[in-house]
Amino acid sequence: MTIDWWTLGLQAANVLILMWLLSRVFWRPVAAAIAKRKDAVKAMIDAAKETQAKADAALAEVTAARNDISKERDAILATAKQEADTATKAALLEARERTEKIFAAQKASLARDTDTTRTETTKQAAELSTEIAAKLLLRLNTSNIQDAFISLLIDAITKMPEGDRAALAQSTDDIDLVSASDIKDADKAKITKSVQKALGGAPGITFVTDPDLIAGMEIQTPHFILHNSWQSDLAEILKELNNAAQ
């Protein structure tokens, strides 16, 4: 086998030239690109690490905030429960106080109603009693009773204050002498004389009949009344009964 050194040398030269060209044209740009890519990857890794660190920090903050929120929620719930318990107790206390006030008011109202009913019943009973008494006394309106009331009238006139008696005696207007029944003319003169003597003067006297007196005889003027009848006595009794019932 014969070796062609020239061909071998040319091939070796070609290889060297190719290697030189590759190193100059291909390997350097590729190496530069690889280095640049490596730097870019490193930058991305660093950025990713920084982002991860930020994410971890944010997660830590979120976790801490969540813990704080949980604690705050527990505190709020505890406060709300305490306030609700306090409000419930206050509401129950207020309801009980209102109920007691209502019961007290109803009790007082019942007592007033009872007193009112008792008072009204007593008044009605008193009015009925006086009405019955008036009807019974009306049957006793005899001349003897009339004479007794005339005596009582004269006695009442003598016991009047001197000033009132003098005013009646000096009256320029007629004095009404009111009786429950008509009086005979003969008796009128006698009664007039007795009344004028008791008054100590001679005022004019007009006889008036009022059956509502039941029995009795009264002196009446526009400004003065001297009561002397069963009507006034029953009215006074009814007044006392009503006052006692209150």
Please provide a brief summary of the model.
The chain has 246 residues and is α+β, with helices and mostly antiparallel strands.
What does this structure look like?
The chain contains 5 helices and 4 strands. α4 links the parallel β1 and β2 (205-209). The mean pLDDT is 76. The protein has a 4-stranded mixed beta sheet with strand order 2-1-3-4, covered by helices on one side. It folds into 2 domains: 34-139; 141-245, 2-Layer Sandwich (Dihydrodipicolinate Reductase, domain 2), CATH 3.30.360. 77% of the residues lie in helices and 7% in strands. It has helices spanning 5-138, 143-158, 162-169, 185-199, 230-245, and strands spanning 175-179, 205-209, 217-221, 224-226. It is rod-shaped. It is α+β, with helices and mostly antiparallel strands and 246 residues long.
Write the layout of secondary structure elements.
Blueprint: H1 5-138, H2 143-158, H3 162-169, E1 175-179, H4 185-199, E2 205-209, E3 217-221, E4 224-226, H5 230-245
Parallel strand pairs: 1-2
Antiparallel strand pairs: 1-3, 3-4
Descriptive labels:
246 residues, alpha+beta, Dihydrodipicolinate Reductase, domain 2, 2 domains, four-stranded mixed β-sheet, 5 helices, 7% strand, rod-shaped
